[in-house]
């Protein structure tokens, strides 16, 4: 009996992505695996059941009862784990931080769970790196949302009714999402600057044709990530940034420190110093926000400045986000299968570091 790789219809509010696309179903079949989907699993992403030539379909309970590997985009309700057979594998963004109940349920049902956000950011892991693929979608969408919500045009326009100056856009945090946001702002014709505390981002920002905003604070951490700023560094950053913010029409903030709440970079006083009509799109809203006025999922107006805290941006471009995500999942599942059987190699750091639970044991240190 071939290994059954399965996916359910995602149930998180507003979620439209799917973990297995028709293209990946075909590739899984090509590897000798069986693909089983809940009916309509891909519909919201733009993949009706008929587009999956290589998959079988069942209701949710039927899928769970037969799944050897359950692939998901976001963690399903804990009750779903009870429907899986002991020893089955769960692969996806399982969001284990602050989710002790979920990790306990996976352990109790003796499931082998892999949380793809925990993959090390190594060259070999790049093809499975869901943080990168989905952050790229988020950065792109954040800038489109900004362009749509801003009362100004992004590009310079020369018309019979006069010349419109281009918008000035600042992107705070030049990681994967920030760089994609910068690239998108440039394509829309805005005068774009990027800022980050990791010095190596200067070259990356400049290579996109944007200007690097140097505030004189450097905080490179380990593994290519930023570290948390000290109180003095934070004060210095805020002082320097406050002066610059006055000139920007749009700020898109994407700053994050892994495993920590988002750094608070934009204070209420700094927002009060911005131009009326200015706009902040806070992509870090999900982890608390980079602006202290951000309310996740809401629009806040403060002294004429609008602050948006959009959530789950990748779900808003579900077709391409799913295509990228499903490729990441396929590449990871491929790693778990040897000679047609599921044999995770726990000596492989990609397998070991992403493993949350295995054989009734919790491996996630938190
Ligand atoms: P992230 O989402 O953790 O953070 C976003 C950005 O915010 C980062 O660039 C970070 O430096 C910045 N930041 C944090 N605190 C800040 C502050 N106080 N002020 C301003 N900026 C702040 O980062 P990410 O996008 O996931 O990636 C970060 C790094 O990982 C990059 O170096 C990237 O190239 C690297 N990476 C490597 C791989 C790989 O090799 N497989 C894959 C993806 C990313």
List the helices and strands and how they pair.
Blueprint: E1 4-7, H1 22-30, E2 34-38, E3 56-58, H2 60-66, E4 69-72, H3 78-81, E5 89-92, H4 100-108, E6 112-115, H5 130-149, E7 157-159, E8 162-164, E9 168-172, H6 176-187, E10 191-195, H7 201-207, E11 211-212, H8 231-245, E12 250-253, H9 268-272, E13 279-282, E14 299-302, E15 305-308, H10 318-336, E16 337-338, E17 341-342, H11 349-354, E18 355-358, E19 361-362
Parallel strand pairs: 1-2, 1-4, 2-3, 4-5, 5-6, 9-10, 9-12, 10-11, 12-13, 13-15
Antiparallel strand pairs: 6-18, 7-8, 14-15, 16-17, 18-19
The protein binds nicotinamide-adenine-dinucleotide.
What is the structure about, briefly put?
The protein is an alpha/beta fold. It is 31% helix and 19% strand. The chain is built from 11 helices and 19 strands.
Task: Describe it.
The structure is a single chain. The protein is 31% helix and 19% strand. It has an eight-stranded mixed β-sheet, sandwiched between helices. It has a seven-stranded mixed β-sheet with strand order 11-10-9-12-13-15-14. Strands 7-8 form a two-stranded antiparallel ribbon. The protein folds into two domains: 4-128 and 317-362, NAD(P)-binding Rossmann-like Domain (Rossmann fold, 3-Layer(aba) Sandwich), CATH 3.40.50; 138-315, Rossmann fold (3-Layer(aba) Sandwich). Strand 18 and strand 19 (361-362) form a beta hairpin. The two termini are 36 Å apart. Helix 1 (22-30) runs parallel beside helix 10 (318-336), helix 5 (130-149) runs parallel beside helix 6 and helix 5 (130-149) packs antiparallel against helix 10 (318-336). It has eleven helices and 19 strands. It is an alpha/beta fold and 366 residues long. The model has no long low-confidence stretch (mean pLDDT 96). Bound molecules: nicotinamide-adenine-dinucleotide.
């Amino acid at each position: 009996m071939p290994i059954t790789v399965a996916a359910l219809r995602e149930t998180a509010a507003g979620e439209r992505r799917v973990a297995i696309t028709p293209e990946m179903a075909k590739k899984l079949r090509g590897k000798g695996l069986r693909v089983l989907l809940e009916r309509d699993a891909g519909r919201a992403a733009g993949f009706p059941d008929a587009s999956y030539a290589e998959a079988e379909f069942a209701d949710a309970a039927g899928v769970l009862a037969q799944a050897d590997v359950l692939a998901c985009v976001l963690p399903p309700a804990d009750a779903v784990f009870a429907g899986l057979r002991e020893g089955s594998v769960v692969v996806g963004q399982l969001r284990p931080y602050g989710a002790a109940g979920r990790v306990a349920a996976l352990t109790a049902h003796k499931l082998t769970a892999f949380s793809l956000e925990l993959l090390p950011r190594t060259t070999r892991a790049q093809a499975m790196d869901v943080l990168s693929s989905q952050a790229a979608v988020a950065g792109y969408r954040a800038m489109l949302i900004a362009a749509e919500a801003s009362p100004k045009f992004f590009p310079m326009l020369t018309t019979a009714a006069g010349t419109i100056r281009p918008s000035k856009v600042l992107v705070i945090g030049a990681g994967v999402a920030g760089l994609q946001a910068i690239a998108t702002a440039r394509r829309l014709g805005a005068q774009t600057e990027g800022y980050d505390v990791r010095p190596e981002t200067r070259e990356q920002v400049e290579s996109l044709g944007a200007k690097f905003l140097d505030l004189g604070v450097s905080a490179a951490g380990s593994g290519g990530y930023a570290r948390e700023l000290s109180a003095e560094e934070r004060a210095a950053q805020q002082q320097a940034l406050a002066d610059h913010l006055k000139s920007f029409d749009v700020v898109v903030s994407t700053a994050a420190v892994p495993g920590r709440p988002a750094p608070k970079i934009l204070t209420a006083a700094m927002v009060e110093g911005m131009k009326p009509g200015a706009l902040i799109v806070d992509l870090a809203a999900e982890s608390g926000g980079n602006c202290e006025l951000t309310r996740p999922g809401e629009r806040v107006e403060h002294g004429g400045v609008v602050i948006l805290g959009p959530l789950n941006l990748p779900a808003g471009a579900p077709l391409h986000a799913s295509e990228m995500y499903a490729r990441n999942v396929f590449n990871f599942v491929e790693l778990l299968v040897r000679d047609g059987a599921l044999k995770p190699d726990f000596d492989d750091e990609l397998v070991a570091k992403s493993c949350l639970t295995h054989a009734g044991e919790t491996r996630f240190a938190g």
